[in-house]
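FAQ: What does a multi-protein file look like?

Like this. Sequence, then tokens, then the next protein.
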Amino acid sequence: MSIPKEKLLWMYETMVKSRYYEELLVEAYAEGKKPVFNIGAGPVPGEMHLSNGQEPAAVGICAHLTKDDTVASPHRPHHHAIAKGVDLKRMTAEIFGKVTGLGKGKGGHMHLFDPTVKFSCGGIVAAGIPQAAGAALAAKQKGKDWVAVAFIGEGAANAGAFHETLNMAALWKLPLIVVVENNSWGISVPKSGSTAISSNDRRAAAYDNTVGYSVKDNDPLEMYRVSQLAVERARRGEGPSIIEIETYRFLGHFQGDPELYRDKEEVPSLREKDPIDRLRNHLLSEGIASENELDQVENLVKNEVDVAFQFARESEYPLPEAALEDVFC
């Protein structure tokens, strides 16, 4: 299965955008939190979960989605949001708690919502799977070929919502795809210590009308190919799929995580297999793009991200009297 040049360049552009975005976010999040780490201080308060290293999971499948397809994301959402086309300025403003944000500053990093591109972030482990199934059911009832994708970590595949939702999705042959981002760590617990199955795609065998796919070694090209099969199958009305991708995070479970559970050589060894570098080398070695072409892509992306952060910093905080506006109980 050959991948069109425009798709490969979009994947590279989006991965670079996500990486640079989070690099700036690391810097902004650290402001005001030193010398003693204070989760409530600085322009970006609260807990922060970043996805550097996990970009292939997002671009591989979002390359096949449209604005009519739904994506539900967990607490590590930025690479999904960027790949789905969430407004970068408004997303950044939301993370900074500004009134120009997606939720007028009320949701923050773990509760990003952009209905214009059908993106939601539930924040809680496995919470996005039922949400995505609801969108898939709506598509089926409306007679549309829309697809719903739920991204989860490998630990969430042990949650009840995973099994309950897949049971219904299989029974009703819903166009649902669950992408399991296996970064080997559920907070500080290794997958080997929490999950009695080698790869979560094998769980598809427990349900009729369900197919499982496995992507090894954080490979963006293989993620694209596997995702195409799952998306096409969903659009044909053949039922749900589970995709597990072996990926990895370069940073801790959250910013400020001392990472005492990780071997000190783990991250350096993973960075040697950086998926962005690997995709860039593929584009160059195959003659798909030139050094100059990729440099231009990187410069444009970085300018877009810089503008988004400037917009967020210059935006106003909500007034105290607006705290209960647009809040529904």
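And here is the next protein:
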Amino acid sequence: MGITGKPECDRVSELKSFDNTKAGVKGLVDAGLTKIPPLFHHPPHKSDEPSNLGNTQHIIPVIDLADIDQDPIIRQEIVEKLRDASETWGFFQLLNHGIPASVLEEIKHGVCRFHEEDMEIKREMYTRDYTKPFLYNSNFDLYTSPALNWRDTFMCHLAPNTPNPQDLPEACRDILVEYGEHIMKLGILLFELLSEALGLNPNHLKDMGCADGLLALGHYYPACPEPDLTMGASKQSDNDFLTVLLQDHNGGLQALYQDKWIHIPPVPGALVLITNDKFKSVEHRVLANIDGPKISVASLFNSGLESFSKPYGPINELLSEHNPPKYRTTTFAEYIHYHNTKCLDGNSALLHFRI
């Protein structure tokens, strides 16, 4: 049985019917529905109630990268702030990160243009073949998730190989490549700072291959007629080394901090998951909204397709007799397979790899 109480065969039939439209959640909205389908209903849970910390944006760590390459003292201060934010929160806000405001605005417009493109054009790119350089669908875990999320997504591999422009939709072709170049530069800097925050050589995480691959996700959250019944994105922790997130002005992102959900303002954020629990891989979610659409762009750094079979485990330099490994060694391929198979069920995939 699914959470709707229907026989599983009926639920699978409904999922296939939704998938076969190749229109995603936006297709439902365009059809003029006023009640969301039961497939999207999320059961209420006490732990998901809003927190009284919801509007305390001032307590969220802010890291200003201005003059980081001009003054070693400033760089060290930034490293210390990043270490504290990563150990305590698992995310932080970035200011003066070097990406022009015009580029940030254009990538949001590009994502919106694609998702609001003529449906027949989008249908040509709708697929669940994740080996393609660019693909679009709704709910990557459509057939395994206990409840669907109110969003559509496109995925684009920007590194290690720059995509062929002909593989990208015209609506966001140029800005995807340009944005990817800026994000890669920022990501390499962040990995240097994270390495220093761990007491390692600045190139340590980069040399491990953490910045070899870059995947861009363009999320589109249509206006939802019944936002209290569903989620834009279920509780999850990311499945990569580092995520830089750009939100539009609508917000909606929340992070779990001290067992309470708090709102995160629309600025880039970061998540790290290979430091033997020294840095947090924060659990987060996105609320559905009656206003919309909401746009976000997530840039995920990973080992790259060519290195998916490379083993990864707790960093040896961080281990000792008093700090033994907490996770077993695995490959990115095994981790991604498990993450995608288990679906967004609210539990971190990391728990599966605990020793």
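Q: Is there any per-entry metadata?
A: Some entries carry free-text notes. For the entry above: The chain is about 30% helix and 15% strand.
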